[in-house]
Design a protein that fits this description.
Number of helices: 3
Low-confidence stretches: 1-19
Largest sheet: 13 strands, antiparallel
Number of strands: 13
Shape: globular
Helix content: 10-25%
Radius of gyration: 18 Å
């Protein structure tokens, strides 16, 4: 698997230097499983910034692992007190919507997060449940607006593909379409604009990568990592800054994390 990852990256880099790429190829590289570590662990800090300057700090442990080519992710909320003990499991599926489950400590119950709820706030932040997973290429209609556009984000200049993505099932998302600037070196969208369903000219949310790094996993494989991202609600002017810390890639994690048993107990074997 690791050798395949290296070969894939080298082959695709050569191809991209020689030929213009289609929108399908660009999106496919971004969402390809070979760009995701087989296992990963990180601590995530989310700072929810109110318009008056008040800040709520959230501290989350995140674990990710593979299973038959699919990716599972769990989130364990440590702070603030209102969210402590909340745990979320996301399990990728083939040919249907991914499964998402949440454990609510105040009710001591596990419930499935319905598809219709996934556009809602991710535990009080300006991110939604949809924001916490990668959209599959067949979930959107994608078109290239510009095949070479420079944009400065977080003080860094990126040369990008500018792509418009319109969800096929609008009832499952909180926006009408999005405009993304995909960095040509890493295939990461460094800026994403979200537009209103009823007013296509009205931008309602903006996501910008403040800090993008190439990091190395335990086996020597390199991965692009969004270390810091700022999400702004343009209706309320409330913001959430997401920072990734203390990450470990490609160090095996017990499969017991990705079960409903772990959701209810917070204990892995």
């Amino acid at each position: 698997m690791k050798i395949l990852k290296s070969l894939f990256a080298t082959a695709f880099l050569f191809t991209s230097l020689c030929f213009a790429q289609t929108v399908e190829e660009i999106i496919s590289v971004f969402t390809d499983l070979d760009r995701v570590p087989d296992y990963n662990y990180s601590t995530i800090l989310i700072d929810n910034i109110e318009p008056n300057g008040n800040v709520e700090h959230m501290f989350i442990k995140q674990y990710g692992g593979g299973n038959n080519g699919l990716k599972n992710t769990v989130f364990d909320f440590i702070q603030p007190p209102r969210a402590k003990g909340t745990r979320i499991l996301q399990a990728e599926k083939v040919g249907r919507n991914d499964d998402r489950w949440v454990y609510l400590p105040e009710l001591r119950t596990i419930r499935r997060i319905a598809t219709a709820e996934r556009y809602k706030s991710f535990v009080g932040s300006e991110l939604t449940y949809n924001d916490m997973t990668l959209r599959k290429i067949d979930e959107d209609t994608n078109e290239i607006i510009s095949d070479s556009e420079n944009v400065t984000v977080g003080g860094s200049l990126y040369n990008c593909w500018k792509i418009k993505s319109t969800p096929i099932k609008l009832n499952e998302v909180e926006y009408g379409y999005r405009i993304s600037w995909f960095d040509k070196k890493t295939y990461i969208p460094v800026r994403v604009e979200f537009y209103d369903k009823k007013d296509p000219k009205k931008m309602i949310k903006l996501s910008e990568v403040d800090k993008l790094e190439i990091v190395t996993g335990a086996t020597g494989i390199e991965y692009p990592l969004r270390r810091s991202t700022l999400v702004t609600n343009l209706i309320t002017n409330r913001k959430s800054r997401v920072t990734v810390k203390d990450f470990k890639f490609d160090e095996p994690i017990s499969d017991s994390y990705f079960t409903q048993t772990w959701l209810g107990t917070g204990k892995a074997k």
